[in-house]
Design brief:
Elements (H helix, E strand, L loop, with lengths): L1 H17 L7 H11 L3 H13 L1 H29 L4 H4 L18 H16 L4 H17 L5 H26 L1
Length: 177
């Protein structure tokens, strides 16, 4: 009963976001946001740290590596254990606007990485943390808007990525501190 209610609400919220202003600039905007979250953006952080904050580069690099080392295998294990079908595969009236790299929906990998990196980068550059979380939120919304994730996939990805970032920061802080 609860699962059916949550699934129904998840689909309704998905449709509200997915169907919002298709004739506006939003399709292009959300494709760009989603592309930036493919991972290229995150390495620019390391380059910036290397050249502008050399004293913090090494711990930032270790946290960055630890976060992805924790996140990637657990993400794949979780995704392939749950095996949730993507919205465009589950509903004939939904067309995806981007091609996902795998067939399953939960959790959102883009959102997981975006929230993980918002916390990791924000840990070292706290003055940009609000912008990083805004970007992470936009990544999550973009994945719904583009038809490849449900809202609960986004919430799961955000929680998972945040947890991986906290684990990496704690682990590296204890190893190096």
């Amino acid at each position: 009963m609860i699962k059916a209610y949550v699934s129904q609400y998840d689909l309704q919220l998905f449709r509200v976001i997915f169907n919002f202003r298709r004739d506006s600039f939003l399709p292009v905007f959300f494709r760009i946001v989603s592309f930036l979250a493919d991972g290229y953006f995150y390495f620019l952080f390391l380059v910036y740290m290397y050249f502008s904050r050399t004293e913090a580069f090494r711990p930032a690099f270790y946290v960055f590596l630890a976060a992805f080392t924790i996140e990637m295998p657990l993400y794949h294990l979780l995704k392939h254990s749950i095996r949730r079908i993507r919205p465009f595969n589950a509903h004939d009236d939904i067309d995806n606007m981007v091609l996902p790299i795998d067939e399953f929906s939960f959790p959102s990998g883009h959102t997981s990485a975006a929230f993980m990196m918002a916390l990791v980068i924000g840990h070292f550059l706290p003055f940009i943390m609000p912008f990083l979380y805004l970007f992470a939120l936009l990544v999550g919304i973009s994945r719904i808007y583009l038809g490849v994730h449900y809202p609960s996939d986004i919430l799961g990805g955000a929680a998972f990525g945040t947890g991986c970032a906290f684990a990496a920061i704690y682990l590296i802080g204890h190893v190096t501190g």
